[in-house]
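Worked example (supplementary).
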Amino acid sequence: MNDYFKQKVTEVNKDTEQLRAYNSTDSTVVIAGPGSGKTTVLTLKVMRLLEDVIAEPRGLACLTHSTEAAREFKTRLSKLGLRRRKNVFLGTVHSFCLAEILIPFAKLYPKYEIPDPIRIISEAEKKKLFASVNLHGGTTVTEMDKERTRNIRGISRVALDSYEVALLTAIIFEEALLKSGFIDFISMVKFSVELIQKESFVRKAIEAKFPWFVIDEYQDLGRPLHEIVLSLLDKSNIKIFAVGDADQSIYDFQGAAPDYLHELSQRDDIECIRLLNNYRSAQTIVNASEYVLDNQRGYVASGALRDYPAIMNFIECDSGMDEQYQKTVKLVRQFHSEEIPYHEIAILVGKNDEVKALKNEFDKHGIPVYLARQDFRTTESILWLQNCACWVEDKTKTSFDEIYLTWKSFLSHQQQVINSEDDDLLVRRKLLKVLVESKRYKSNLFEWLHYTFTELDIFRVFDGSGRYPDEIDNFKNLIRITKQTKPVLTLGFIIRLGVPDNQVVLSTRHSAKGLEFDVVIMLGMEKDSFPHFYDTTQRRIDEARRLCFVAVSRARKACILLRSKQLPNKSGRWFSKEPSPFWIILKEFHDANASSKYDQQFE
Amino acid sequence: MNTQPYICKVNIENFRNFRCADFWLNEKQVIIGENAVGKSNLLYALQLILDPTLSDKDRMLDESDFWEGLDDPMTNGKQIIIELWFANFEENKYVLAQLTDAIVMLDKKETLKLTYKFYPYRKIGDTNEYSFIIFKGDDENHRFSYEDRKFLNIRVIKAIRDVESEMRNSRTSPLTQIIKQKYSISKDVLAEISHALEKKGADTLQIGQVEDLESRIQKLINQMVSHNQAQFSVSLKTMNIDATKLLYALRPLIDNRESGNTSLGINNLLYIALILLWIEDETIKTYLPKELYEELIEKDDSDLIKSCYSKSEEINGYTLNDDILTISEKRDELYDFMSETIPTANGVTILAIEEPEAHLHPIYQRLLYRHVMNRSNASVIITTHSTHISSVAPITSIVHLISKSNGTSVKTTARLELDDSDFSDLARYIDVNRGEIYLAKGVIFVEGVSEEYLIPSFAKIMGYELDRLGIVVCNVNSTNFEPYRQFAEALGLPYVIVTDGDYYYKIEEKIKFGDLASKDDVKSGYAGIDRSKKFSGIADIMEAHVASDYEEGITFDDLKIEDQIEFFKSRGIFIGKHTFEVDIFCKCGTATTTERQIICRVFDELTAGGPQQKQNFKDRMSNGEYNKCMALIESSYSQIGKGRFSQRLSSNVTRPMIPVYVEAAINKITELMRRRTN
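After joint prediction of all chains, the assembly is encoded as:
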C-alpha cells in the first residue's frame, strides 16, 4: 500500500457510508449523489478487492460508461499502486463485450449466428443499411437503436413504453444487419447478453476470470448491462459492486433509464448504501439542486466549501442568444478578475451548435476556451497516440512496452501475425525509431502526426479494419483540426487531451456530466428550450429535470442562469419566450432563501 | 475439488516415433508397449508443452527429432506438431481464469487446447530457419507462457533416477520443495528452534508445520500400503541446525531409519508420496498456525472453522479433524470457505511416472498403482512393462503403443463404451490372467476351456508356437464376445473369434439343440451365426456385402449357410457347426482312424465308469452319435468333464482332428500379425 493509497483510505475512514462500501463483502449498490466521492470509493474498492480478496490470476472487471472514464480510472488506479496484472479489465461495456465475451466465445457457439470473424460495421455503412429499411423515414437511427437496446428479453421486470415505428424498423434492421455479416455496437452487446444468459460455460469462464464486477455510472448503462448483471447474480457466484445515481440518468436517448438501477438496488441479495455527503459544493448549491429535483434526498454539504456563501444569479436578456453569449463573456471576465481561473468556469448550453457560436464569441474577445467535446472521438487509438506523445515528451513517465503492446494488438487485428522473436524485434525497433525521430516535430502537431502516420503507415493498419471501422475517419478529423487551428497546435494539445489548460470550458449539459467547476453558467433557460418543445411526456420532462439537476450540481461556488425574453425560430420569426420551468423553480428557491451579502454585492 | 483437469486428447505429427498419432485419453493412463516403441517420447511430447523444468533450448528441436520416415524434413519445410486438449477444467477457477484463451470446442464440449509447433519461420537462401511456438487455442498470437505453465504443467518421475541423492540434495528434494512452497514459517520460530537444537542436540523438529508434514506423509504412505498390518512411522530430522538452513536439510526417517537404508524400494514409495503431496490441492489446510486460525475465526460467521479444527498445544496451532475430508458436504463447505478467504492460486500438475516397476517390489507396484489410480485426485500417466500394474489398471485407462512401419500407432481404451457388467467381466478376466492380453500381439477369443487347451496344440501341429508368437488364447467363458472384441479393437490388437455353431432345428416352433445336423431337418439354424449377426457394427457390413455382391431384394438371411459363414470368416469370426468337441469328433472319421482310437483311448483313461461305459462310448463314436459321446464325457457317471478331457487330449492331438474353421482361424491370426508388423 503506497502513501497515496493510505491517505485515501484515511479519508474514507472518516465517512461511515464510504467505509461501509469499501469494506462490503457482498454484492453492493452504492447510490452516490453529486460530489459524494464515488470515484474515490470505486478506485479504492478495486484496489482492496485486488489486494485482499482476489488471488491471481483471477481479477475483476471494472466497467465504465466511456473510454475517457476508463482512462481516468486507469490513471487513478496506477497512482494508487495498481500493477499490471492478468484479468483486470478496465473499459467500457462495449469493449468488455467484444474482448471478453464475443471474441473468446462467439466462435464456440455457432448456433447464435454471431458473424465470424467479428467485423464491426462502419457508421457510413450502418447509415446506408438503415436507410434501406427506413423507407418511409418514420424514425431515426438513434430512436431505433434505443428500441433495440431496450427490447431484449431477460430477468428485469422494468417495462418501458416503446415507439412502435422505431421498434418495427429495429426488427427489420437487425435481420438486415445479421445478413450483412457485420455487427454494430448494439448487437455486440445483445449477442453478449444472449451468450451469458444461455451458456453456463460462458458464465463459468467469466466468473473464473472476474469474480467481481465493479460498475460505474450504472444509471447510464441501460438494459443490456442490467440483464448481464441480473443473469450473473442469479446464475453465478459473481459479485457486483455498482455505483450510480438514478437522479443523474440523462441518457434516455441511448436507452438508459433510472429504473434499472432502482430495480437492482431493491434486490434481496444486494446491500444498498447511500452516500449523502456532498464534498463538492456549498450547501446552497446542494439545496438548489435538490429543489430542482423536487425530491428530498437529504444531501449534506460536507466539504471545505460547506458554508461558502454561494452565488445564484438569474440574468434576463431582451432578445436572441447573442446577447446571452455577450453577457456570458462579461461574466467570465468578472469571475476571472476575482481570481477564479478560466478552467474553473463552465458554460453549459443545450446544443452543440450553441457551443460553436459561443466559441466564436470567446475567440473574438481572446479568451481561451476548451471544448468538452471535440470533433473527433477519444478512441483507443487516439489514447494510444496520446501515450506516444507523452513518451516523446518524457520517456520516464510512460512505458514504451505498453505503447508497443497496443501497437502490436492493432497490427494483429489486421491479421498481421508476428511470427517470431526476430519479427517482433523488428516491429519494435521500427516503432521506437519513428517515435524517437518524431521529437523533431513536437512544436507542430500537424507535422508530428504527418510524420508518424506516414512512417508507421497507420492508415494502412486500420484500412478496412473489422475492429475499428471508423478509425481512419476519426484520425482525419483530428488531422483536419490540427491543420486548421491557429495558432498552430503543439504536441501539448494531444498530451493534455481531455484536460483544459486554463481555458473556459464550453459544453453541452450532457457532456458536463462527471465534471465539476467553481462556476457554472447555464444558458438558454427558456420555456421550450429546456425542457425542449418535444419533451411532452412525463418521462421526458423528468429526464430534463434530472439533466438540470446534473447541471446545477456541477457547481461548487456559483450557478448563474441566463434567459432571453425573445428568440427567433428556425425561419427567423421572433417569439416572446417564457422562462424555463427550472428557471422558475430555482428562482423560487433563491428568493425564498435570504440572499447572501456577496450575492447582493455582485448585483 | 473432485477430479483434476486432464489431457483428454493428443495429436502428434512427425515427432520421433510418431508420424501421425491421434488418440483420446482419460484422467488416469497406463502406457504400455514394447521397448523402443516410443513410450518415453510420448511423454516427452507432453513435456515439450507442459514441463516447467525444460528450458527453451530443450524445446528447440532439431532434424533428429523428426519422424525417421521423412526425407530431409527441414529442407522440405516439414513441421512437428503436438496438440493437447484438456477436459474437466471448468471447476478449477484459477486454471480457467489463466487459460481462457485456450478454449476450443471438441466433440461439442469446451476444452482447453495447447499446441506446440516446430516450423520453418523464414527462408534464408535455400535454408529454412526453424523456430518453435507454443500457443493457446487456435490463435497463434496467444502464446502459452511461463506464467500459464504455472497453472497447468506436468511433472515426470524418470525411470532412471537416483532417489537417494535427489532426496539428499536440498535443491531437488521434494521435501524441501514442499516446505518452501506450501508452508510459511517465521524466521523467529526458526531461530528459536535452532537455538533449542543446539542446546539439546535433538534432531527432530517441534514446529507445527513440520509435524503437520510428517503426519501427512505418514498417513499417505500407510494409505498406499494399507493392505498389510505393518504401519510405517515417518519422522523428519534435520541435518543442519543453522536457523536459515534447517528446513532445507530435512531428511525423512522411516521407522527411525534413514529411508535409503530400507529395503523393497520404500524410499521410492516415499519419494512418490512426496511428489503426490507436492502436487496436491492445498486449499484445505491440515494445519493452521495460531495467528491464521484466529484470522479465519474472525471472518467465519458460522463456526465452520471451529468445528473442523482442534487445538494442538505442543505445536502452537490447530489441526484438521480426521473425519472432515471424508464427509463430503463438510469438506466442500470448508473448501469453498478457504478458497474465498485465503485464496491460494493452485496450479494443476499432471503426474507422469516412468516405469515405477524398476524400483519397486511387485507388491508395492500394485499397491502404489491402486492408490494413484483410485484415491489420488491427480491426473496420472504411468508407463510400464509390468503387468502387475497394467493388470489392475481400469479398463479405460490403457494406452497401447504399437510399432508399425509408418510410425508408432497409439491405441487407447479411453472411449470404450460398455455397460457396467461387461466392464467388470473384462476387468476380472484381465486381473485373473495378470494382464497377459496387454503383452499379446494377437488374440484368439474362445468360448470355453476346451478351446483354451486344444487350440495351442492344434497350432503347434500346424507349425505355430502361439506362445512364442505372442498369441494369446483368451477364454471368455461364455459367448459374450462383444466387450472383448471392442477392447481388442480399441487396443489395436489383431484378433479372431472362434465360436461354436450350435446347430439347432425346430419342431413345432420349439428350438431343439444338441443333435447333429441332418438334411432331414426342415427348419434349422446355427445359434453361432445368430449371435455373430448381433456384434456391434456387423449389421451394416452385412448389408453392404449383400448389396454389392448379390441381386437386389436379397437379404443376408437369404444367403446359403456356407456363404454366411464365409462372410463372418472374412471378418475374423470363425463359426463351427456344433460344439467344439463334436466338431473335432466329426473330423475323426471312420472307426479305423488313428484319431478315433486316440479319442477312445483318452476316454478310457479318464472315465470312472466301467467297461460297459467304455464300450458304449466306442459304439457311439462308430455310429457317428458324437453328441451322445459328449454327453458321456460330461456325465456325472464318468466324472471327466470337458476341461479334463481336452487337457488330456491336447497332448495327443493329430493334424486331421483340427476342425476346418479352427484351422482357418489359426491361419488368419498369424496372417493378421504378419500384416500388422509390415
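Two points are worth noting when inspecting this output. The first strand of chain B starts at residue 6 and ends at 15. Residues 239 and 249 of chain B are 5 Å apart (CA to CA).
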